[in-house]
Amino acid sequence: MDDIKLIEVKEEILSDNDAAAAVLREKMHADKTFLINLMASPGAGKTSLLLQTAAALKDDYRIGVIEADIDSMVDAEKIQAAGVDSVQLRTGGFCHLDADMVKQGLDGLGAENYELVFIENVGNLVCPAEFDTGAIKDVMILSVPEGDDKPLKYPLMFTKCDVLIINKTDMLSLSDFNMEKLRGHIARLNPGMQIFEVSSRTGAGIEGWTNWLRDQLNGFL
Amino acid sequence: MDDIKLIEVKEEILSDNDAAAAVLREKMHADKTFLINLMASPGAGKTSLLLQTAAALKDDYRIGVIEADIDSMVDAEKIQAAGVDSVQLRTGGFCHLDADMVKQGLDGLGAENYELVFIENVGNLVCPAEFDTGAIKDVMILSVPEGDDKPLKYPLMFTKCDVLIINKTDMLSLSDFNMEKLRGHIARLNPGMQIFEVSSRTGAGIEGWTNWLRDQLNGFL
């Protein structure tokens, strides 16, 4: 296994994160790098979903991953072990990534060599929603054990994202999670949101998500 | 059901949150109000644990709850419906509570009339760990579906807290969560941490936690 590149990110107080993100997004279009910002609570299944997604797509696309963590490399190690290139951003205490930190990750990865790059953001439903990272698409995971009321409590995250992946559907039988209720909240907050129900553990539903990704990539590349 | 008091908290840029927290904690000792700061990821089961805890203790102690949410009152409504007094702090975009916000909640509740007051902090394993709220004890919940590696990824939270409640043990059979591994991480990070394994859903293990709380209250009041 290759050594994983570790980048200790510095927080630059950028006067205008939105402008930096717009520049980055333009570069992603020019380089034909489809950059996805993946966000979720701690333990919702970001790494597992990335592993399933990479397994489905890695024969057809060059995939890279930027892992963000406050203080460990466990996720980057799992991704690397699956044969997917990754860099680790260590964020110190920061609760989110901004466009400049993502740029440090893209540079470290050599993102221009990849067609599909995922940012695994810090596990947090609050702060990451407030910062444009320059990604082409924002994707969030909500896992069934977290409950169907989360859109009411973290509305910005559910409003900002283009895609909602409902993970751990294999746990529905042990939970009072009501899928109709959840879909009702989304219909009011963000009616254009794409929703996929999956279980990263069993693989159920993953194909719906990866087929959508293939369509996006076909339009983009 | 009484109307729930809603407090829109203002963030004062306090030069020294630690000093404000120390003043608040001294007042809690003087008033004999055992203030607990409860923290966890979104959906780990803070409100459910509070409901179980209140059911076990409300005949013996006067209990109040300060709910913090970015933008909803669903938790305060659940708590109030169970016959427990609560106030709702609406934090706008803030990802954590500081001592001044907690003071606004305590004043709104009339905390001097209660022996046991819980703060249900914003669902987040990052930011709340960085701010002393003035509580007597810091308690966190980790739920089984989040995984046993979380101490590696959010070490400050696991180091800061006095008590770890491992919730949703009824989901162990559907998860690769390894309790020994988790306990090993804690032994290295925070060997004095009290650990309770519970299921708020089935009630299993709740008594260990509430008995510990009774002991603490007996020593404090």
CA-atom Rg of chain A in angstroms: 16 Å
Order of helices and strands of chain A: EHEHEHEHEEHHEHEH
Quickly count the domains of chain A.
1
Kindly report the name of the CATH homologous superfamily of chain A: P-loop containing nucleotide triphosphate hydrolases
Overview of the structural elements:
The structure is a homodimer of 221-residue chains. The first copy, chain A, is an alpha/beta fold. Chain A has a single domain (5-9, 20-220), classed as P-loop containing nucleotide triphosphate hydrolases (Rossmann fold, 3-Layer(aba) Sandwich). The first copy, chain A, has eight helices and eight strands; from the N terminus they run βαβαβαβαββααβαβα. Chain A has helices spanning 17-31, 46-57, 74-81, 99-109, 150-153, 155-160, 179-189, 206-220; strands spanning 5-8, 34-40, 63-69, 85-90, 116-120, 137-143, 163-167, 194-197. An eight-stranded parallel β-sheet of chain A has the order 1-4-3-5-2-6-7-8, with helices on both faces. In chain A, helix 2 (46-57) crosses helix 8 (206-220). The longest helix of chain A has 15 residues, at 17-31. Chain A starts with a strand and ends with a helix.
